[in-house]
Predict the structure.
Amino acid sequence: MKLSKSLYSFNYSFSVFLKRGVGILLFIVLCSFAKADQTSGMLDSANSAYSKGDFQRAITQYEGIRNKGLESAELYFNLGNAYFKTNNIAFAVLNYERAKKISPNDEDIAVNLKLVNQKIEDKIDAAPQLFLTQWKNGLVDLMSEKAWSILCILLITIALILYAIFISFNNRAFKQIGFFGGTIFIVSAIATFFIAQHKYTLTKNNTDAIITSASVTVMGSPNEKGTKLFILHEGTKVDVTQENDGWTEIKIANGNVGWIKGKDVTSI
């Protein structure tokens, strides 16, 4: 009797747990759909405000979506457009750069970023790079980390299929195609994996930022009494190298380094 009672108790407890688990899962799914619907509604409202020429309202709503922790290339692109329409060059550049970070091959983003960069006052020539470094950077920047990862998985899948052909067929031609083809694709997959890993590291450790104040004086040390080195203007892209007590050390494209106040720069 004790055994059957304990089994009944266990079955009852498991049934309650299962029902509660399903209920919780259903609640989470419904909340996710509700959040997605709410976000979609906010995006539609922001797009509507933009199409009506109410760019400031569109900016507020786009920023509201971003502040919820949501992001996409489309969101940043539209936000960049809205800032551009209000002649806020710094934040237009910032959001186009954020859009490009997510979707590096989008032509519309590239065109608008090039257009807005023409309005930046500072024209800084990049320090020369070795050909191999330029080639490597160009290759890595062809796609996002996610796209490289998907390509890697696709190449592995094709390689496995070709190796299956090598194992399954007795025909010499099929065996050669399966073996050599599989080897080529698996080597390509390995190379793609390392590219995806490198792209992920670059994205995770990205320190690029945009000057968002109208103009800033770059100092030789992190204090007001330091040597004044040069002046930068809004929209200029910099690389953040370190931070110290409210000051940020930056490096510009030509290799020059100096300190500005942290509030004058925003990370991409």
Notes: Strands lie at 208-211, 215-219, 228-233, 237-244, 247-251, 257-261, 265-267. The two ends are 68 Å apart (CA to CA). The domain at 2-117 is CATH 1.25.40.10 (Serine Threonine Protein Phosphatase 5, Tetratricopeptide repeat). The first helix runs from residue 2 to 51.
